[in-house]
């Protein structure tokens, strides 16, 4: 320790680390507090909603019963599940196909096509919502599952990530298959797809989450309540029961639970795919 | 032979004789790219062009079009609410982008070391991202209910006075910014963690041996080597602030642009013009300004990263 001013001694490092952990813990608890409060309020009696009790004094399931009996919540959940699952499956198929071609197959215009696709990456829905609405209306897809599903499939992010991944697969594997006389579809289907299972499963989770949580698009193109997705349903529910926060929080808990449970199961995969992508 | 032929059919390639292997590869390439290329063209490309074209028409809600030239832009230039929305969006961007940078990097540094405890902390910081923005908005509304909500109560218990966080035009936008940071910071924390991982630990070792303190290594090693990540974060958070899902969803559920238009973001104003007042052409003109702004940001991204540094081949 010739330079005690500049370097920290071992006990000092321990103190610094301890303080760091404490700060992290306090901040993390503050971060999840609103979600905890949602859960807690969902089980509270109306009279207790605005008392400062962390845990409900007389926990009740009544709020959940109310949400499921008074509103067509099961229908909204079914619609959301159907739309999210369809979008996820079709998107994975299309994006892995184009990702494979853009990474592996040689054809004129490949780079231009890739760059053009990539350039749509920063176009977000709110910007094109009006013309997209008019387009989808012209195609006769207002108030339909097709209108909810099809426009949600296409995004440059998935294509980009899959292309990057396929670039990293050793070429020898395919060359062997080509010599075997396998067609490109078979190489894609029985060689490339299985190889990309880890990335495909991460993307599946991300796509599903994104669509489960989507709000603006379903809000814009469905006026028919039978086609509402949960986020639209819950925002309308708020409009109807604006002061009944116990019901609103019960509904919120129902809507948030599936994604939070998915996160608890797949947190490592979800966080790793975001961390390594360096991209949204 | 028969096997090869059937595979060609399966790949959508006619088993025509006389095609070289190169041509077959090209045909397969187009076939594989087609669904996505078509979809992106129809559902993103066409709307972008439409947004620019629509702006020159008066479009009513029933599909009637009437050419008005630059009428929509003249109206836009003279529309105080558009300028208000422009100022609100600019304020939102100017606060949100630095706040996300600082909170994202700060949290990443705090939980940088890989161990079980930090793994749990990362999960907790990231958790808000998993909840839908509608639910996020509702939960914060409960917490911020005037006088009886948890936050106003805590604030007044601390002797800071009584505030109406969502009802006061001076405060509502900052409430939206605060909730946006809470929702997004975990995502940027992960991006920064990814960037920090790429910095070789030998650099820190060497700096430590040379007698550098933690602040010096942060200033002379971490920050410069994080430049690509920082650039990415700034661009993405800027786009997210102008036109991200959270901008619309939070405003729609929490404030509807109020009070006194203090949270009237441009994207919310566009939505309102189109779907509440059926002024589709005018909304198109408003959107075209955003399209141009975002295209500008994209070009900057491309130029500074030489076609996307993400394109390592």
UniProtKB/TrEMBL annotation, chain A:
Subcellular location: Cell membrane
Transmembrane feature ranges: 21-43, 76-100, 112-136, 142-162, 245-266
Entry membrane topology: Multi-pass membrane protein
Domain of life the protein comes from: Bacteria
Record-level GO cellular component terms: plasma membrane
Major location category of this protein: membrane
InterPro entries in UniProt: MetI-like, MetI-like_sf
Keywords tagged on the record: Cell membrane, Membrane, Transmembrane, Transmembrane helix, Transport
PROSITE patterns (alphabetical): ABC_TM1
Recorded family membership: Belongs to the binding-protein-dependent transport system permease family.
Protein name as annotated: Sugar ABC transporter permease
Species in which this protein is naturally found: Pleomorphomonas carboxyditropha
Automatic annotation (TrEMBL), chain B:
UniProt entry keywords in alphabetical sequence: Cell membrane, Membrane, Transmembrane, Transmembrane helix, Transport
Membrane topology summary: Multi-pass membrane protein
Main location: membrane
ABC transmembrane type-1 domain segment(s): 86-301
Keyword Membrane: yes
Superkingdom assignment: Bacteria
SUPFAM superfamilies: MetI-like
GO biological process, alphabetically ordered: transmembrane transport
Transmembrane segments: 30-57, 92-111, 123-143, 149-166, 173-197, 217-243, 250-271, 283-304
Subcellular location, record wording: Cell membrane
One Gene Ontology cellular component: plasma membrane
PANTHER family the record matches: ABC TRANSPORTER PERMEASE PROTEIN, INNER MEMBRANE ABC TRANSPORTER PERMEASE PROTEIN YCJO
UniProt record similarity statement: Belongs to the binding-protein-dependent transport system permease family.
Protein name per UniProt: Sugar ABC transporter permease
Organism encoding this protein: Pleomorphomonas carboxyditropha
């Amino acid at each position: 320790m010739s330079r005690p001013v500049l370097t920290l001694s071992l006990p000092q490092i321990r103190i610094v680390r301890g303080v760091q952990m404490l700060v992290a813990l306090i901040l993390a608890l503050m971060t999840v507090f609103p979600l905890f409060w949602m859960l807690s309020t969902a089980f509270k009696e109306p009279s207790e909603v605005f008392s400062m009790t962390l845990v409900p004094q007389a926990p009740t399931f009544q709020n959940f019963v109310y949400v499921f009996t008074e509103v067509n919540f099961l229908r909204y959940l079914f619609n959301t599940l159907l739309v999210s699952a369809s979008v996820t499956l079709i998107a994975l198929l299309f994006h892995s196909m184009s990702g494979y071609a853009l990474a592996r197959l040689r054809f004129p215009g490949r780079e231009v096509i890739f760059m053009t696709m990539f350039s749509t990456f920063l176009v977000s829905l709110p910007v094109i919502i009006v013309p997209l609405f008019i387009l989808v209306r012209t195609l006769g897809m207002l108030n339909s599952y097709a209108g909810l599903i099809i426009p949600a499939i296409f995004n440059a992010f998935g294509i980009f990530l899959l292309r990057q991944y396929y670039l990293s697969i050793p070429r020898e594997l395919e060359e062997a298959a080509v010599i075997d006389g396998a067609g490109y579809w078979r190489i894609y289907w029985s060689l490339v797809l299985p190889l990309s299972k880890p990335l495909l499963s991460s993307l599946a989770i991300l796509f599903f989450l994104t669509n489960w949580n989507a709000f603006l698009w379903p809000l814009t193109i469905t006026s028919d309540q039978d086609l509402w997705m949960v986020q639209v349903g819950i925002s309308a529910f708020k409009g109807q029961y604006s002061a009944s926060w116990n019901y609103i929080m019960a509904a919120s808990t129902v809507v948030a639970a599936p994604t939070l449970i998915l996160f608890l199961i797949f947190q490592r995969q979800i966080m790793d795919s975001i961390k390594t992508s360096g991209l949204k | 032979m028969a096997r090869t032929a059937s595979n060609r059919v399966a790949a959508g390639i006619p088993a025509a004789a006389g095609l070289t292997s190169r041509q077959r590869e090209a045909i397969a390439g187009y076939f594989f790219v087609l669904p996505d290329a078509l979809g992106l063209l129809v559902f993103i490309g066409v709307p972008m062009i439409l947004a620019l074209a629509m702006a020159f028409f008066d479009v009513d809600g029933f599909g009637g079009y009437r050419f008005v030239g630059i009428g929509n832009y003249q109206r836009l230039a003279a529309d105080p609410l558009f300028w208000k929305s422009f100022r609100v969006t600019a304020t939102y961007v100017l606060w949100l982008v630095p706040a996300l940078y600082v909170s994202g990097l700060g949290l990443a540094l705090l939980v940088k070391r890989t161990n079980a405890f930090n793994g749990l902390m990362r999960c907790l910081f990231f958790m808000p991202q998993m909840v839908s923005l509608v639910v996020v908005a509702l939960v914060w509304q409960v917490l911020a209910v005037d006088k009886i909500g948890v936050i106003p109560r805590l604030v007044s218990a601390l002797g800071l006075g009584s505030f109406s966080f969502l009802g006061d035009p001076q405060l509502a936008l900052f409430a939206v910014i605060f909730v946006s940071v809470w929702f997004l910071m975990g995502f940027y924390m992960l991006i920064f963690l990814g960037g920090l991982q790429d910095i070789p630990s030998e650099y820190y070792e060497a700096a430590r041996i040379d007698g550098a303190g933690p602040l010096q290594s942060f200033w002379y090693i971490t920050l410069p080597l994080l430049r690509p990540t920082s650039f990415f974060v700034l661009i993405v958070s800027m786009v997210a602030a102008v036109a991200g899902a959270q901008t619309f969803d939070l405003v729609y559920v929490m404030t509807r642009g109020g009070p006194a238009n203090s949270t009237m973001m441009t994207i919310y104003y566009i939505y309102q013009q189109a779907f509440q007042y059926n002024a589709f052409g005018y909304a198109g003109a408003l959107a075209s300004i955003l399209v141009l702004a975002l295209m500008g940001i994209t070009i900057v991204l491309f130029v500074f990263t030489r076609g996307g540094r993400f394109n390592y081949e």
